[in-house]
Specification:
Number of domains: 1
Largest sheet: 2 strands, antiparallel
Distance between the termini: 21 Å
Strand order of the largest sheet: 1-2
Shape: globular
Strand content: 15-25%
Helix content: 25-40%
Number of strands: 2
């Protein structure tokens, strides 16, 4: 998961919490939801929600 998401353009940091199933991504700019979902899917997981800050 971490390698697929961290490979996206503009991603600075990826924090994975396996216990909660939560991934926190810090990026230089807003990431495209479909691009993020595709990276998560490639890692074998499903993106089920988002929290934009």
């Amino acid at each position: 998961m971490q390698s697929e998401v961290s490979g996206l353009d503009g991603v600075r940091e990826v924090e994975v919490d396996l216990a909660s199933g939560r991934v926190t991504v810090t990026s230089e700019e807003r990431l495209d939801y479909d691009t993020m979902a595709a990276a998560v899917d490639e890692a074998g997981y499903e993106l089920v929600s988002r929290d934009e800050r």
